[in-house]
Amino acid sequence: MDIYCLQCESEMLGAIHKIGASCQLGRTMPHRKVLREQFSISGDTVVHMPTSAYWTAHPGDPQLGAIFMGRLGEPLENGEEYDRREAHEIALTLLEERIRPQ
């Protein structure tokens, strides 16, 4: 189900945009929730699939080696926008979990 910014709808003369896109009136719409299920883990790299952002750690260590923010914090083609801080926190948790004994 798509949700639309009803406040901008009338002010934009009928044009509507999905929440998550930058508001044409200069306001930023809420970010889409970042979920663990949106990440893939391969070796020492965690990727946020919707934005192509990735975090790479040193082998066997949770310390970060590199971060690429991809499209985090900016509207994607489908209007969705993800919060950098939320994604970063989940990525760090996933990197720490990969080295914990099962």
Structure description:
There is one protein chain. This protein has about 100 residues and is an alpha+beta fold. The protein has 2 domains: about 1-30, no CATH class; about 30-100, no CATH class. It is about 20% helix and about 20% strand. The chain has 2 helices and 4 strands, in the order αββββα. Strands 1-2-3-4 form a 4-stranded antiparallel beta sheet, covered by helices on one side. The model is unreliable at about 1-20 (pLDDT under 50).
Features:
102 residues; alpha+beta; 2 domains; 4-stranded antiparallel sheet; 2 helices; 4 strands; 20% helix; 18% strand; disordered N terminus
Topology:
Layout lengths: L5 H6 L27 E4 L2 E4 L4 E5 L6 E5 L15 H14 L5
Antiparallel strand pairs: 1-2, 2-3, 3-4
Quickly describe the structure:
With 102 residues, the protein is α+β, with helices and mostly antiparallel strands. The chain has helices spanning 6-11, 84-97, and strands at 39-42, 45-48, 53-57, 64-68. The protein has two domains: 1-30, no CATH class; 32-102, no CATH class.
- The overall number of domains is 2
* Apparent shape: elongated
Unreliable sequence segments: 1-21
Number of helices: 2
Distance between the termini: 38 Å
> How much helix, percentage-wise, in residues?
10-25%
CA radius of gyration = 17 Å
